[in-house]
Amino acid sequence: MSERIIHPAVLALSTALHFPLPEQGPDLDIGFAQALAVWMLESTAPWPDAVAPLMAELLALHRRDSQGDVPTPAEWQQARQQTQLLQTAEDDLLKALIQVSEAAAWPISAGKSGLTELHTAAAMVQASQASRATGWTREDNRQAFALLNQLVVGEDGKQRPRDEIPALFAKTAPDLEPRFTRQLRASNNAFIQFSQTLRDRLAAG
Amino acid sequence: MSTIKTIGDDDFAALEAQTGDAPLLLIFSAIWCGPCKAMAPTLEDIADVYTPSVAFARIDIEQAPGLAEKFGVRTVPTLVLRRGGQDKLRHVGVLTRTKLAAMMDEACQEPQA
Questions:
Q1: Nearest residue, CB atoms, A16 vs list B38, B48, B102
Q2: What pLDDT, on the 0 to 100 scale, is given for residue A23?
Q3: Which one of A89, A127, B26, B34 counts the least CB within 10 Å of its CB?
Q4: Residue of B6, B15, B22, B33 marked catalytic
């Protein structure tokens, strides 16, 4: 039986997902890797106006790449330059999308990190969208972290034991804490779910 | 095969002497550090492209505590870009390949004083 072909980018992704690939199974070659990249990029839509044109351009580059209409190195280079023109954002969703754009500004065939970077960034987008869907806002986030940063240090000026902080947070901010916890669970679940979907796709081939 | 060598406390002086005027990227990491593991393929891709214009060295802060202390590393991953025996840039946390490539391009273009 011939050996299974696994592209280095797919192998790196399987390692990052703690999902060892069995010796036997369908080939997970460059075509599979490129299709996975397209799927991950599509999963991050819809995009806010600030990044939509660049994201659409990156998606088009990856679609062409996967269809054999290989973009030139200059086109990828130009895409990378455009990602560097995006403003650093305070907004978590925008921040994650900028990371997606940076991760997607390379052909998957160039090296082994294309899929691992895309996975992390795209999963962060899912997490951020799930957090927002609970009604959690940027202002809520700012308030919560300002308070948590205060609670980290005790009245004696020493670092408070980590396990004391959740109860103290709930006592200090009884309205904010349950909403914080709900959005955090939703966010974590979305990240985990996205990673599981990728594992399923690796398993299916 | 990775072009990033792992160095210990006793290897740094020789590595820096060997590197000469070329940029040297020190990558401080730890075996238990998830973000360090996530960033490993990115760093290998960058090293594959920029070696030998840039030298790369990975330092496990538990295996080389002297170097971690020398460079004041308290969080991993930490990247320290050196040139001519001086720190030129420091970044704490994960970086994308795009950001790292921009950093390497700048380091390679910068004239040595």
A1: B38
A2: 84
A3: B34
A4: B33
Query: How many degrees, rounded to 5, is the angle at CA A152 between CA A146 and CA A157?
Result: 115
- Residues belonging to chain B with any Cβ–Cβ distance to chain A shorter than 8 Å: 37-38, 41-42, 44-45, 48-49, 94, 96-99, 101-102
Instruction: Compute mean pLDDT per 10 residues along chain B, 113 residues long, and list them.
Output: 88 94 96 93 96 96 97 96 93 95 89 59
What's the complex ipTM?
0.87
Report residue A69 as tokens: 């209409």
CA distance A200 to A202: 5
Mean pLDDT along residues A69-75? 97
In chain B, the domains with their CATH numbers are 5-109 (3.40.30.10)
Smallest CA-to-CA distance from B23 within B39, B40, B46 is with B46
The answer to whether the peptide bond before residue A174 is cis (omega within 30 degrees of 0) is no
Distance (Å, whole) CA A5 – CA B98? 28
The pLDDT assigned to A166 comes to 93
